[in-house]
Amino acid sequence: MGADADTTVPRWFPDDEAPTRLFLVRHGSTVHSHERRFSGLNQLPLDAHGRAQAQGIARHVARSGDIDIVVSSPLPRARETAEAIAAQVDAVVETVDDLVEMEFGDWEGLTLAEAHAKWPDIIAAWLAGHDVAPPGGESFGEVEARVLPAIDSIVLRHRGKRIVVVSHITPIKTVLRTCLCAPQETMFKFHLDTASLSVIDYYADGTTSVRTINNSEHPA
């Protein structure tokens, strides 16, 4: 063994440090969810199914142990879900504007097939690119540029805590993708159900550990 050989034992994450744990929750369903319509910055509330889902995920999160804070996108569907969780864990909801869903512009309320019929070239480029935006909307790169600093700020302000973050498909997938160091196309390779739970541990040295993706089974 050479004098300069690195004898440090490899590790996956710090053994002696309590992580900051993020419980990432996608909101319950709205009328757009069942038909898989683009649903961005609209003010739709949860539908009846979504309200039941919010209660289910709230009970599930409460069974996971103590929760220190609940953070939410300000959009009604996320806020309603967050309030259901907060009521179960005896917390107050803090809203963070940068956790809102992607702005879909002219595609808002359309299905992918409907948007493709009118904008086939843009849809193809959007599915393949980080910096392509729907007409009047945001690109994945623009979403990432606001969501990741927001998450970093939440983790920094609540270091060592257990935090529920209620948001939307694109922000949650963006956080998961970057924590996994996965390429952009990964955004379309895994599914997030309404009222699903994904869990990530954050450590002070910048290490992350993805523990759960898309847990949507919440026993009563």
Task: Walk me through the structure.
The protein is globular, with a radius of gyration of 19 Å. The protein has helices at 48-63, 76-89, 112-118, 120-128, 140-157, 169-179; strands at residues 20-26, 69-72, 93-95, 162-167, 197-202, 208-215. Strands 3-2-4-1-5-6 form a six-stranded mixed β-sheet. The protein has 220 residues and is of the alpha/beta class.
Spatial shape: globular
Question: Ranges with pLDDT <50 over ≥5 residues?
Answer: none
CATH topology: Rossmann fold
CATH homologous superfamily, by name?
Phosphoglycerate mutase-like
Rg (CA only): 19 Å
The total count of helices amounts to 6
Overall domain count:
1
Element string (H = helix, E = strand): EHEHEHHHEHEE
Q: Output the CATH class name.
A: Alpha Beta
Q: What is the correct CATH architecture? A: 3-Layer(aba) Sandwich
- The CA-CA distance between the termini, in Å, is 58 Å
Q: Gist?
A:
This protein is an alpha/beta fold and 220 residues long. The chain is 34% helix and 15% strand.
Set down the secondary structure blueprint.
Elements: E1 20-26, H1 48-63, E2 69-72, H2 76-89, E3 93-95, H3 112-118, H4 120-128, H5 140-157, E4 162-167, H6 169-179, E5 197-202, E6 208-215
Parallel strand pairs: 1-4, 2-3, 2-4
Antiparallel strand pairs: 1-5, 5-6
Helix pairs in contact: 1-2, 3-4, 5-6
Distinctive features:
alpha/beta, 220 residues, 6-stranded mixed sheet, 6 helices, Rossmann fold
